[in-house]
Amino acid sequence: MSTLIHSVRLIDGGTEIENAWVLFDDGRVSSRGEGTSYPTAREVVDGSGCILSPGFIDIHGHGAGGASYDGGADAIATGRAVHREHGTTAALISLVTTSIDDLVTRVGIIADLAERDSSILGSHLEGPFLDPAHKGAHTLELLRAPDAASIERLLEAGRGTIRQVTLAPELPGADDAIQQFIEAGVAVSIGHTDADYATAQRAFDAGATLMTHAFNAMRGIHHRAPGPIVAALRDPRVTLEIIADGVHVDLSLIAVVFSAAPGRVALVTDAMAATGVGDGCYDLGGLQVEVSAGVARLASDGAIAGSTLTQDEALRRTVDAGVPVVEAIRALTSTPARSIGRPDIGHLETGASGDAVLLDTDLTVRRVWVAAQEVIR
């Protein structure tokens, strides 16, 4: 079925076009233009006064709707449904630290789902190759240094669908692990790390191209010890994840990061099961999490344990922090897509998948399309 969305402010790829239109046909963008002369379609949507954006892409999220992505196919479906209503049309499925055996099973499940559903972009392994001193909400006893045999088991189980891995580059064997993952087409992200500036830069020179939730679970910036964040900000090859909930990173800092790394910020949720549900007690990777006033923390030590953020809320908070809406939307679309080697998505050029979000002027989601099919909200 063809769908025409017209009279919109189209924001796509870091640019904006006033009075634009986009035509979806057979699940994809068949044409686009501007002005009042546009093609006919079976369904016509008047987007006057609204913004049309590519669908949002989340490369780091753990669940929603009371379900954790570690819980299998049904849990993934539950969580994805919540995020889809908030404009996230495609996502990596992030897995927390567990045993290699369990991860092998879970990445296999995600590989099966990705074969059937193009909106599931694959898996993101956030662990177990993390620094114990910066473990965050990961089980200490299951953290380990990377080894070639374990990595090969994971890659075989993922069948090409492991798209991102977070690791601490100072761990023994990390250099070889980075090469092994990169050769398999996996984007390597440094995070949960005690790396200093030089160690982070060495990892980037080795091929790491991402920083997992920048500022969190790593050394901070000091004027005599700039640390890994400054290394990432200065390296044009590196994309920095930011959780814009006002808890993980102070909102006053977000505009500074966007200015320091233009086109290299990916707004992620790091969302856990409480997202879309509310306060209460939850499980994250076998750890008890207490959510109060929307903030998730481990019951054991109070460490932040993911977020209850959705990407539309991240957009609003980022714009309120002073970031231009064009740049904020790029950080939700083309930038995260590119960071995991998927430049074919995250835009609305002719031929692209019909994944789109219609937003009010206050950046509230009005309508969502996935492969040109409207999401019932």
From TrEMBL:
Keywords: Carbohydrate metabolism, Hydrolase, Metal-binding. It comes from the Bacteria. InterPro entries: Amidohydro-rel, GlcNAc_6-P_deAcase, Metal-dep_hydrolase_composite, Metal_Hydrolase. It holds the Pfam family Amidohydro_1. Residues 51-367 form the Amidohydrolase-related domain. The keyword Acetylation does not apply. Its EC number is 3.5.1.25. Belongs to the metallo-dependent hydrolases superfamily. NagA family. PANTHER family: N-ACETYLGLUCOSAMINE-6-PHOSPHATE DEACETYLASE (PTHR11113:SF14). NCBIfam families: nagA (TIGR00221). This is N-acetylglucosamine-6-phosphate deacetylase.
